[in-house]
Write a structure and sequence with these properties.
Blueprint lengths: L12 H10 L6 H21 L7 H16 L7 E5 L7 H7 L4 E5 L3 H13 L6 E3 L11 E6 L5 H11 E11 L14 E10 L6 E9 L3
Parallel strand pairs: 1-2, 1-4, 2-3, 4-5
Antiparallel strand pairs: 5-7, 6-7
Helix pairs in contact: 1-2, 2-5, 3-4
Length: 218
Protein backbone atom coordinates (compact mmCIF):
# COMPACT_ATOMS: atom_id res chain seq x y z
CA UNK A 1 0.00 0.00 0.00
CA UNK A 2 1.30 3.46 -0.87
CA UNK A 3 1.14 6.17 1.78
CA UNK A 4 1.10 9.69 0.31
CA UNK A 5 2.29 12.61 2.39
CA UNK A 6 1.64 16.30 1.94
CA UNK A 7 4.30 18.17 0.02
CA UNK A 8 4.13 21.66 1.48
CA UNK A 9 4.99 23.18 4.82
CA UNK A 10 6.46 21.30 7.77
CA UNK A 11 6.14 17.53 7.74
CA UNK A 12 3.79 16.25 10.43
CA UNK A 13 5.54 14.12 13.06
CA UNK A 14 2.62 11.69 13.06
CA UNK A 15 3.45 10.71 9.48
CA UNK A 16 6.81 9.36 10.62
CA UNK A 17 5.17 7.15 13.25
CA UNK A 18 2.57 5.92 10.78
CA UNK A 19 5.16 4.94 8.20
CA UNK A 20 7.31 3.22 10.84
CA UNK A 21 4.30 1.19 11.92
CA UNK A 22 3.91 -0.09 8.35
CA UNK A 23 7.25 -1.82 8.92
CA UNK A 24 6.28 -3.09 12.41
CA UNK A 25 8.63 -0.59 14.02
CA UNK A 26 7.41 1.19 17.14
CA UNK A 27 9.02 4.60 17.67
CA UNK A 28 8.58 6.45 20.94
CA UNK A 29 7.81 10.18 20.94
CA UNK A 30 11.45 11.16 21.47
CA UNK A 31 12.60 9.11 18.48
CA UNK A 32 9.91 10.65 16.27
CA UNK A 33 10.78 14.16 17.45
CA UNK A 34 14.46 13.65 16.61
CA UNK A 35 13.81 12.16 13.17
CA UNK A 36 11.41 15.00 12.42
CA UNK A 37 14.01 17.59 13.48
CA UNK A 38 16.62 16.00 11.23
CA UNK A 39 14.31 15.96 8.20
CA UNK A 40 13.25 19.58 8.71
CA UNK A 41 16.89 20.61 9.02
CA UNK A 42 17.65 18.67 5.84
CA UNK A 43 14.88 20.49 3.98
CA UNK A 44 16.37 23.83 5.04
CA UNK A 45 19.96 22.97 4.08
CA UNK A 46 18.83 21.28 0.88
CA UNK A 47 17.57 24.58 -0.54
CA UNK A 48 21.17 25.82 -0.77
CA UNK A 49 23.43 22.77 -0.83
CA UNK A 50 21.44 20.14 -2.74
CA UNK A 51 22.20 17.35 -0.27
CA UNK A 52 19.56 15.01 -1.71
CA UNK A 53 17.43 14.85 -4.83
CA UNK A 54 14.42 14.14 -2.60
CA UNK A 55 12.57 17.44 -2.16
CA UNK A 56 8.97 16.59 -1.30
CA UNK A 57 7.94 15.12 2.03
CA UNK A 58 6.81 11.84 0.52
CA UNK A 59 10.11 11.43 -1.30
CA UNK A 60 12.04 12.22 1.88
CA UNK A 61 10.13 9.52 3.74
CA UNK A 62 10.96 7.02 0.99
CA UNK A 63 14.60 7.91 0.46
CA UNK A 64 15.73 8.93 3.94
CA UNK A 65 13.74 6.69 6.30
CA UNK A 66 12.43 3.46 4.82
CA UNK A 67 15.67 1.50 4.49
CA UNK A 68 16.59 2.47 8.06
CA UNK A 69 13.19 1.34 9.36
CA UNK A 70 13.71 -2.06 7.73
CA UNK A 71 17.24 -2.45 9.06
CA UNK A 72 16.19 -1.41 12.56
CA UNK A 73 14.25 -4.66 12.92
CA UNK A 74 17.18 -6.91 12.07
CA UNK A 75 20.50 -5.59 13.38
CA UNK A 76 22.11 -7.24 16.43
CA UNK A 77 21.68 -5.63 19.84
CA UNK A 78 24.46 -3.17 20.69
CA UNK A 79 26.21 -3.61 17.34
CA UNK A 80 29.05 -1.37 16.22
CA UNK A 81 27.81 -0.06 12.84
CA UNK A 82 29.53 1.82 10.02
CA UNK A 83 27.46 3.65 7.36
CA UNK A 84 29.76 4.33 4.42
CA UNK A 85 28.94 7.27 2.17
CA UNK A 86 26.29 8.53 4.56
CA UNK A 87 25.56 11.70 2.56
CA UNK A 88 22.73 13.54 4.31
CA UNK A 89 22.51 10.81 6.95
CA UNK A 90 20.55 7.94 5.48
CA UNK A 91 20.31 5.22 6.48
CA UNK A 92 22.72 5.57 9.40
CA UNK A 93 21.33 8.54 11.32
CA UNK A 94 17.64 7.54 11.43
CA UNK A 95 18.78 3.99 12.22
CA UNK A 96 20.79 5.31 15.18
CA UNK A 97 17.79 7.31 16.37
CA UNK A 98 15.41 4.35 16.08
CA UNK A 99 17.96 2.01 17.70
CA UNK A 100 19.88 4.00 20.34
CA UNK A 101 21.64 0.81 21.46
CA UNK A 102 23.68 0.81 18.23
CA UNK A 103 27.15 2.36 18.18
CA UNK A 104 26.89 4.31 14.93
CA UNK A 105 29.63 5.86 12.81
CA UNK A 106 28.81 7.87 9.68
CA UNK A 107 31.62 7.98 7.09
CA UNK A 108 31.39 10.67 4.45
CA UNK A 109 34.25 12.28 2.46
CA UNK A 110 32.53 15.49 1.25
CA UNK A 111 32.98 18.50 3.50
CA UNK A 112 29.55 20.08 2.99
CA UNK A 113 27.82 16.82 3.85
CA UNK A 114 30.00 16.32 6.91
CA UNK A 115 29.09 19.83 8.07
CA UNK A 116 25.42 18.99 7.72
CA UNK A 117 25.80 15.67 9.54
CA UNK A 118 27.55 17.32 12.49
CA UNK A 119 24.86 20.00 12.66
CA UNK A 120 22.13 17.35 12.50
CA UNK A 121 23.72 15.27 15.24
CA UNK A 122 23.77 18.32 17.49
CA UNK A 123 20.16 19.15 16.60
CA UNK A 124 18.93 15.68 17.53
CA UNK A 125 21.12 15.58 20.66
CA UNK A 126 23.01 12.43 19.73
CA UNK A 127 26.68 13.25 20.41
CA UNK A 128 27.41 9.51 20.60
CA UNK A 129 26.99 9.24 16.81
CA UNK A 130 30.46 9.63 15.27
CA UNK A 131 31.12 11.38 11.95
CA UNK A 132 34.32 10.65 10.03
CA UNK A 133 35.32 12.73 6.99
CA UNK A 134 37.03 9.85 5.21
CA UNK A 135 36.79 7.59 2.18
CA UNK A 136 36.03 3.93 2.66
CA UNK A 137 39.58 2.87 1.80
CA UNK A 138 41.03 4.56 4.89
CA UNK A 139 38.55 3.22 7.43
CA UNK A 140 39.69 0.73 10.03
CA UNK A 141 39.56 -2.87 8.83
CA UNK A 142 37.95 -5.72 10.78
CA UNK A 143 36.57 -3.08 13.16
CA UNK A 144 32.78 -3.24 12.83
CA UNK A 145 29.94 -5.62 13.60
CA UNK A 146 27.78 -4.29 10.75
CA UNK A 147 28.60 -2.39 7.55
CA UNK A 148 25.91 -0.63 5.51
CA UNK A 149 26.01 1.63 2.47
CA UNK A 150 23.54 2.90 -0.06
CA UNK A 151 24.09 4.19 -3.61
CA UNK A 152 27.81 4.72 -3.08
CA UNK A 153 29.17 1.54 -4.69
CA UNK A 154 27.90 -1.08 -7.07
CA UNK A 155 26.52 -4.08 -5.13
CA UNK A 156 29.53 -6.30 -5.95
CA UNK A 157 32.03 -3.55 -5.11
CA UNK A 158 30.30 -2.76 -1.82
CA UNK A 159 30.37 -6.39 -0.73
CA UNK A 160 34.14 -6.49 -1.15
CA UNK A 161 34.59 -3.13 0.60
CA UNK A 162 32.33 -4.24 3.44
CA UNK A 163 34.22 -7.53 3.81
CA UNK A 164 37.33 -5.56 4.75
CA UNK A 165 35.49 -3.44 7.29
CA UNK A 166 33.68 -6.05 9.40
CA UNK A 167 35.12 -8.57 11.82
CA UNK A 168 34.64 -12.32 11.41
CA UNK A 169 30.96 -12.99 12.07
CA UNK A 170 30.08 -9.44 11.08
CA UNK A 171 27.26 -8.48 8.75
CA UNK A 172 27.36 -6.64 5.42
CA UNK A 173 24.03 -5.29 4.20
CA UNK A 174 23.44 -4.65 0.50
CA UNK A 175 20.50 -2.33 -0.24
CA UNK A 176 19.05 -2.87 -3.69
CA UNK A 177 16.48 -1.42 -6.05
CA UNK A 178 16.82 -2.87 -9.58
CA UNK A 179 20.24 -4.49 -9.24
CA UNK A 180 20.61 -8.20 -8.58
CA UNK A 181 22.11 -9.30 -5.30
CA UNK A 182 25.77 -10.35 -5.63
CA UNK A 183 26.06 -14.14 -5.91
CA UNK A 184 29.21 -15.00 -7.88
CA UNK A 185 31.73 -13.14 -5.73
CA UNK A 186 35.49 -13.62 -5.57
CA UNK A 187 35.62 -13.53 -1.77
CA UNK A 188 33.44 -16.60 -1.27
CA UNK A 189 33.36 -18.79 0.81
CA UNK A 190 34.26 -16.19 3.42
CA UNK A 191 31.11 -14.18 2.63
CA UNK A 192 27.79 -16.00 2.77
CA UNK A 193 24.40 -14.65 1.69
CA UNK A 194 21.96 -15.24 4.53
CA UNK A 195 18.59 -13.47 4.10
CA UNK A 196 16.71 -11.18 1.76
CA UNK A 197 14.01 -8.79 2.95
CA UNK A 198 11.68 -7.41 0.28
CA UNK A 199 9.62 -4.25 0.79
CA UNK A 200 8.29 -1.18 -1.01
CA UNK A 201 8.93 2.48 -0.44
CA UNK A 202 5.65 3.63 1.11
CA UNK A 203 5.02 6.76 -0.95
CA UNK A 204 6.17 5.76 -4.45
CA UNK A 205 5.67 2.02 -4.11
CA UNK A 206 9.11 1.33 -5.62
CA UNK A 207 10.35 -2.18 -4.73
CA UNK A 208 13.42 -2.54 -2.54
CA UNK A 209 15.49 -5.37 -1.11
CA UNK A 210 17.85 -5.55 1.85
CA UNK A 211 20.22 -8.51 1.63
CA UNK A 212 22.24 -9.67 4.64
CA UNK A 213 25.65 -11.28 4.17
CA UNK A 214 27.85 -12.66 6.95
CA UNK A 215 31.65 -12.80 7.01
CA UNK A 216 32.80 -16.11 8.39
CA UNK A 217 36.29 -17.19 9.47
CA UNK A 218 37.92 -19.57 7.00
Amino acid sequence: MCYHIGDSGSMESSKISQVASQFDLALDDDHVKKIHAWLELLKTWNRKLDLTAAKKDGDLIDVMLTDAFVLAKHLPEGAKVIDVGSGAGAPGLPLAIARPDLKMTLAEPLTKRVSFLRTAIAAVERPDVIVKRVRADVLEVDAWDVAISRATFSPDEWLEVGEDLVRDGGEIWVLLAKDDAPTDISIEPKIRQMETFEYNWPNSGHPRRAVRYVKSAI
